[in-house]
Design brief:
Blueprint: E1 10-12, E2 27-30, E3 33-39, E4 44-48, E5 61-64, H1 70-79, H2 83-96, H3 98-109, H4 117-126, H5 143-165
Antiparallel strand pairs: 1-5, 2-3, 3-4, 4-5
Helix pairs in contact: 1-2, 3-5
Length: 167
């Protein structure tokens, strides 16, 4: 799937100013599918989704369905000018694709130069990559695997700090 970065894929509140479907211009599709909502202006389908936490709890929001895969979410985070897309994509990436994100970041940061440094810096801020913490799943992993993941996240945080300080 190719993502259109100018189209909204996420609807979300900021400081809990909206929470109900109608606050976002959505209505229930049918009684048979009460968790699915529609935007009647463009006939798009949406599901209620917990969104980004700005520090006071997860915001209310909705995600267009079908859900995007990691590559398309990354594309939104890096290239969309729509704030809801950036924060919605960041939240889904971190919650559902943390290890894939780690490997992607390692690939990017190990390149000597990459072309989208300013948009990467913004994404790093949204994802709070300066903070050293293991975002990957730990259940079912050995101590060594968890430690390796943590060390990779530590490396990523150090590289991001280095990049950001070289504005």
């Amino acid at each position: 799937m190719s993502v259109d970065v100018s189209k909204k894929y996420f609807l979300m509140s900021f400081k809990f100013d909206k929470c109900k479907p109608e606050d976002f211009g959505l209505t229930v599709v049918s009684q048979e599918a009460p968790e699915t909502y529609v935007d009647s202006n463009e006939n798009s389908r949406w599901v209620k989704k917990e969104m980004y936490d700005f520090g006071w709890g997860n915001e209310c929001g909705f995600m267009r369905i079908p859900q995007l895969e990691f590559e398309d979410l990354w594309e939104l985070l890096i290239n969309s000018s729509i704030q809801e897309n950036k924060y919605g994509a960041a939240y889904i990436i971190e919650k559902e694709y943390a290890c894939k994100l780690m490997n992607h970041l390692l690939d990017i940061l190990n390149k000597s130069d990459f072309t989208y440094i300013s948009s990467f810096k913004e994404a790093a801020e949204i994802l709070n990559l300066k903070q050293v913490r293991n975002r990957c799943e730990t259940i079912g992993k050995t101590y060594q695997e968890v430690e390796n993941d943590y060390n990779n996240w530590k490396y990523i945080a150090n590289k991001v700090l280095e990049l950001i300080s070289n504005k």
